[in-house]
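Lab notes, practical 5.
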Amino acid sequence: MRTGTPARVGQYTALLTYLVFLAFPFLWLVSTAFKPPRELGSLHPTWIPKDPTLDNFRQAFDEQPLLHAALNSLLAALAAAVVAVLIATPTAYVLARRRTRLAKAVTGCVVVSQAFPFVLLIIPLFLVLKNLRLINSVPGLVLVYVVWALPFALWMLAGYVRAVPPELEEAAAVDGAGRVRTLVSVTAPLLAPGIVATALFAFITAWNEFFFALVLLKTPEKQTLPVVLTHFIGAEGVADLGPLAAAAFLATLPSLVVFALIQRRITGGMLTGAVKS
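Output from the prediction step:
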C-alpha cells in the first residue's frame, strides 16, 4: 500500500491537471460570453463576471444569422454522420472478418489516408464537386464530410467488429439462424456502442469543420456556423469579443448535449447480453 499510494496520487494529479487543461478554454469562453464591454476591456480580468449580462447574446443574433447557419451545420452534420455510418458499418464488417490480402490492403490505405492534410485534398475535391455541380451547396459539403470521415469510421468500426467473438455468430448458425438473421439479431446489437461512437465522431467533426465549408460555400445563406463566427472579426483583425464569445459558446452546446445523451451507450459493455439464456 505504501508503494502504491505515491503512484496513485501522481496518477490523480496528472488526471486533474489534464482536466483543468481541457476545461480552461471552455470556462473562460463562458465567462467572457456573459461579461459586459467594461469588464472585457479590464486590465484585471476575473473568472466570474461582476455584472453578468445577456447583451452579448442579443448582439450576436442581431449581427449575424446564427440560427440559419446553425441549421445548415445541423443538416450537414446529421447527413454526414448517417451516410458515413451506413457505408462504414458493412464495409468494416467485411474488412474485419475477411482476412484476405485485399482486405489488408484496403485497411492499409485507410490508415495511410489519415496522413493527408486538408490542403492537399481540397483541390481534387473541388474539381470533382465542380463537375458534379455541387459547389456552393450543402449536399456537396455533406459529400466532402462523408469522404473525410469514412477512413476513420472504417478503422474505428473494424476494431469493434474484431472485438465481437466469432463464436457468437457460429453459435447462432448452429441454432439455425441464417446469415442475415445472425447479423441483425446477434452482431448488430453488439456493435451498437461502436456505431453510436462512430456517428458521434462524424457528427462532431462535421459540426466543427471550418476549412472545407469556407472554400466550398460562397453564398451567405448557405454558410455553416463555424464560417459565420469569423464574421465577428473585423477587416483589421479586431474581434468583437463579447458577441464572438457568446456565439462560440452556443456553437459548442450541440456537441456537448449529444455527447451527454449517448455517453452511457458508448462506455457501456459491448458484450452485454451476449450470453444465451
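Observations recorded by the TA: The two ends are 41 Å apart (CA to CA). Residues 163 and 270 are 8 Å apart (CA to CA).
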